[in-house]
Amino acid sequence: MWRSAARRSAQIRRLLSSSAPPAGAGAAVPGPCIVHKRGNDILHDPWYNKDTAFPMTERDRLGLRGLLPPRVMSFEQQYERFINSFRSLENNTRGAPDSIVALAKWRILNRLHDRNETLYYRVLIDNIKDFAPIIYTPTVGLVCENYSGLFRRPRGMYFSAKDKGEMMSMIYNWPAEKVDMIVVTDGSRILGLGDLGVQGIGIPIGKLDVYVAAAGINPQKVLPIMLDVGTNNEKLLEDKLYLGLRQPRLEGEEYLAVVDEFMEAVHARWPKAVVQFEDFQMKWAFETLQRYRNRFCMFNDDVQGTAGVALAGLLGAVRAQGRPLQDFPNQKIVVVGAGSAGIGVLSMAKQSMLRMPGIHRTGEGHNQFWVLDKDGLITKTRKGLDPAVARFARGYGPDEVPDLHEGASLVEVVKKVKPHVLLGLSGVGGIFNEEVLKAMKESDSPRPAVFAMSNPTTKAECTPDDVFKHVGENAIFASGSPFSNISLGNGKTGYANQANNMYLFPGIGLGALLSGARHISDGMLQAAAECLASYITDDEIRKGILFPSVSSIRHITAQVGAAVVRAAVAEDLAEGCCDVGPRELGSMSESETVDYVARKMWYPIYSPLVSDK
Ligand SMILES: NC(=O)c1ccc[n+]([C@@H]2O[C@H](COP(=O)([O-])OP(=O)(O)OC[C@H]3O[C@@H](n4cnc5c(N)ncnc54)[C@H](O)[C@@H]3O)[C@@H](O)[C@H]2O)c1
Ligand SMILES: O=C(O)C[C@H](O)C(=O)O
Ligand SMILES: [Mg+2]
């Protein structure tokens, strides 16, 4: 299972140290692009607009002469001007409340996105570590909460319960002929912020920005979608500005009929598009995944993407203790939150433990997990347990930790179990309080690991400061939203890893797309997780670094995408993409597949424009 890790790491290092153009910059001199517009219509189309960078020849050709100031600026000058404006905004808002600053930064980026996509994605790619917290978690959460007030112009598509029977024709209203990647939400569980109804559209937009930046999906071929089936959020229903349907959420068959119709419409127009389900409440996350995963090329990021990222982190925690990976099934793991993400993580971790060779295990009965939800420790005596959760309930037989009981509190569980890992996917900010973290100090691991994976930042179960202070300097920390590293004194650093599904979903989507997989199998997802897990070197792991820097996300995604393509080929699920068929994919070596995936990535460069009008 882990054989190719060293080879992969070597390949990754080669890729990272190359001074060649970034992964995906293959087409450095872009071919001409045909536009079906002229004049102002081009200036108002962010896909084609170059603002003041239109050369005179193009201004003549496209009917732009006189519509722009006479000076022609270069792309580099435009880039510098934007970055300077951004830096001035940072200076001018210093000392203002965090939410004001965050929204101001989001606005300036959003305005560029509205105006000039090439420049927008270039600044995003080059500055992904700085800008991801604005277009993605945590600021995207604030944007969703305030979406109706912030709304200026639409982005993506909106299908509502009122559109029943019309979706097959509506899908043709989308102006792009080809769509490769769709992210859809029903707004029912936006990060840890609950039901935000139509305002949840910010999440698919943010995720697709990451797709463009990390996976090099052409922004003309992405489509964010909101399925508005109502909201149960009373505050929004009473808000005069609320832009969604003012009715309670559809339930049962009525709900599924809307999602079915939407999926059929998408498939009819773009049969090869990959559909990512995002931020659906647990019952619909699982139901839709089971319903569609063998019929369409789709996955649920919160269940499956998160699982792979957490698994990579859990394996890193084993390595950090100086133990072999085969020791993973002996790790004691407390998981707080038994929702779509928590259960996704538990299922994948368990699957992975059961595949590990050479250890005594008891099949399905092998349970190294203690799972808590809002009612405390989950045991088999709990009434009305969802079957997906019941698999992880504690039985309390003779081999159990004594003195634990149904509903036991988190601090009780941590004190008695002394887990190697404490992992939070609860959506409850600060729940890993001082008492809990001090109890983690008594962990049976020499490197106790605390994963506070809930988003946005306000919902993180704890901060890195809390962990390094209360658990100790040998602790390992990861969070869903970004935090800064901590200085521990004596030149030592406490690393604040970011354990976010952004490390995997772009590669899963890209790999599925380029393989032309009929559907996304467990094997493809496992390959993605293994690839991420093997990305980090032993030296980094020893320091407490479990995940690579977000700055290398394009390189990571090329690796993950290639791993997914190879798994699809191995399972005979690949049908190929464009002019590269399954046989050709199958004949590529591991490094050729990485090169192929990297070459397929779109990179923002102004193309010469030719109008056909
Ligand atoms: N880091 C990542 O990549 C990532 C990925 C997916 C989800 N998340 C985050 O995980 C959180 C949960 O997402 P989800 O989809 O599983 O939500 P969910 O609503 O399906 O599940 C939440 C779970 O937390 C439990 N819970 C609530 N209050 C609790 C408490 N006081 N103590 C213990 N458990 C409690 C609930 O009972 C439920 O089991 C969200 O904040 C989300 O942003 C992070
Ligand atoms: O959106 C994120 O940052 C991660 C995850 O998908 C979540 O729902 O929290
Ligand atoms: Mg999500």
UniProtKB/TrEMBL annotation:
Q: Which positions bind (S)-malate?
A: R189, N455, N500
Sorted keywords for this record are: Metal-binding, Mitochondrion, NAD, Oxidoreductase, Transit peptide
Catalyses: (S)-malate + NAD(+) = pyruvate + CO2 + NADH
List residues binding a divalent metal cation.
E278, D279, D302
Query: Where found?
Result: Mitochondrion
Q: Which SMART domains match?
A: malic, Malic_M
Q: Name one GO molecular function term.
A: metal ion binding
Q: Where is the active site?
A: Y136, K207
GO CC, any one term: mitochondrion
Show the PANTHER family listed in the entry. Answer: MALIC ENZYME-RELATED, NAD-DEPENDENT MALIC ENZYME 2, MITOCHONDRIAL
Q: What is this protein called?
A: Malic enzyme
Q: Which organism is it from?
A: Panicum virgatum
